[in-house]
Write a structure and sequence with these properties.
mainly alpha
């Protein structure tokens, strides 16, 4: 993002009539509008560096092509009637959602250094719309990863469910998962306020979240203490939802409705916390 675009955005948001916000329906409509304006502005960053989408596809490709095929031949991980590559593909998509989103908060620190955060705070835009808009913008990058992983999985013979309702469900789970982890990243950035500390915490979180989930092996084969952690890990519910929708004949451990409710509730809580902390990043 360049500063001139942020100035225009702040002006556009500032031009909204405050009297319209007094109407409850208009308040909701304005909140939705503000959220999507922020998301659209954040998405424009892809135009400045589209190669990011390609470079981020390398890691999930390696997991599927190397790790997945090796362990599929070993038959070392019990996945029931589902072949291991079929079991793994949704987990790698969830991993991509996590890895793309968890470092998203560093942009907040960068915007603070450029003075952009101050312009956002000076506008009448609700803080929750700022936080949610930035969180949703991360889902666009995650969706691009989903296309790549779907293509790789199809080439490897994974039985992908291409029904329209299933694809729509995958879209929803990816959006909720990316929004959750990017908002978590923003909350962390608001607390630590420096790039070095943020990157350290981000790197500290990614591997435990990934390995303490059902992404690459079933929860049932974990030690008891790790099972407890896995059941409280939000990434587990992203994986569970994707596994029930993405794979033909896939099933959910908790139920798709439970996965969606947990992810949505967790996102709402983080948006509230992020909206409360967001002004502190400018101090």
């Amino acid at each position: 993002m360049i500063p001139q675009e942020s100035v225009k955005l702040s002006s556009a948001l500032g031009d909204l009539n405050p009297q319209r916000r007094a109407n409850p329906l208009m308040t909701v409509a304005t909140f939705v509008y503000d959220t999507f304006v922020i998301s659209e502005l954040e998405a424009r960053k892809l135009r400045h560096d589209p190669t990011e989408l390609i470079t981020r596809a390398v890691q999930p490709a390696l997991w599927l092509l190397v790790f997945g095929q090796v362990f599929a031949r070993l038959h070392a991980i019990p996945t029931g009637a589902i072949p291991y590559l079929d079991f793994l593909a949704p987990g790698i998509l969830a991993q991509s959602v996590l890895f793309i989103s968890i470092f998203y908060g560093i942009a907040i620190i960068w915007e603070r250094d450029l003075g952009i955060v101050h312009k956002f705070l000076a506008s009448p835009t609700p803080r929750a719309a700022l936080v949610l808009g930035k969180g949703l913008s991360a889902s666009l990058r995650a969706l691009s990863q989903a296309v790549i992983i779907y293509a790789l999985a199809a080439l490897l013979g994974v039985r992908i469910n291409l029904n329209v309702p299933a694809l729509a469900g995958v879209l929803l789970v990816v959006i909720l998962g990316a929004a959750f982890f990017s908002t978590l990243s923003l909350v962390i950035a608001c607390i630590v306020k420096t790039r070095e500390r943020f990157m350290g915490i981000g790197q500290l979180l990614t591997m435990p979240l990934f390995f303490a989930s059902s992404a690459i092996y079933p929860i049932s084969i974990m030690p008891r203490w790790l099972q407890v952690i896995a059941h409280g890990n939000p990434l587990t519910y992203v994986v569970d939802g994707l596994r029930s929708l993405m794979i033909a004949g896939g099933s959910s451990m908790y139920g798709l409705g439970v996965d969606l409710v947990i992810l949505l509730a967790a996102l709402v809580v983080l948006v509230i916390i992020g909206a409360w902390l967001y002004p502190s990043v400018a101090r």
